[in-house]
Amino acid sequence: MAVRSVAITNTLEEFRTTFNSLGSDVGDIGNLETTDTSNIVAAINEINSAVTTAFTIADDTSTTQQVNSGDVFRISSGSNITATVSATDTLTVALNSTVSGLTSIASTAATIGTTLVLGSGSITDTGGTVNFGDDNITTTGTITGNTLTNGTISINSDDITSSTGTVNFDDENLTTTGSLEAATITEDSVRVATRPFAIAQSIALG
To answer: I need a surface site. Which of 49, 51, 87, 149 has the fewest CB within 10 A?
Structure first.
């Protein structure tokens, strides 16, 4: 658009037309959306002040940084956190799906998946069973439970039993400083003693 001006040779009508066109170029100040709508200059100054005024950001340690007009306010993602900027004027900060490098998690109880619960000193499952698959479990402490089951063998308090009715120690030696009690003791398919026989034998021998 050409610069509008009034020459000294222009008529009054030409001056009127040019002046009115200038008003159309500038626009109606009643349509300004700034706080100050008194005139164009005041509105422009208000906008300029808004875009050139610096602001300050601070972190949890009270370290501050001033962001001036024209600066780029950058969000730096850290370990296990991703920051993504997208349209329109959106900043998304998300925890990565894979988290690494953590040295501790402070929580009274953390749920893994939907049923496994990690608590202070305990691993439980709301389904009643924790399955370690074919992994080995190693401890220098004590394993405690009402019943420990391995296949058909169950260890419960003072008992070792088998769902098949037989506990096979193979060729291992059994040693005890206490008493060995059994209804029947068999060695190489030969019955050595039964409890009634042992009682009778004890009476006979005095």
So the answer is: 87
Q: Which amino acid is at 36?
A: D
Domain carrying residue 40: 12-52
Same domain (yes/no): 34, 78: no
**Which residue did the predictor score with more confidence, 190 or 39?**
39
pLDDT tens sequence across 95-125: 998 888 888 888 888 888 899 998 888 889 9
Residue 145 to residue 134: CA distance in whole angstroms: 20
Which tokens hold the place of 205? 């021998």
**Does 44 lie in the same domain as 68?**
no
CA-to-CA distance for 104 and 19, rounded, in angstroms? 75
Judge if 119 and 200 occupy the same domain. Answer: yes
Average of per-residue pLDDT values in the chain: 84
Contacts of 38 (CB under 8 A, 6+ apart): 29
CA distances to 92, 110, 123 from 106, in Å: 25, 9, 15
Residue whose entry in the numeric block shows the structure tokens 């080995």: 136
Per the structure, how many domains does the chain have? 3
Name the pTM for this structure. 0.40
> Do 83 and 145 fall into the same domain?
no
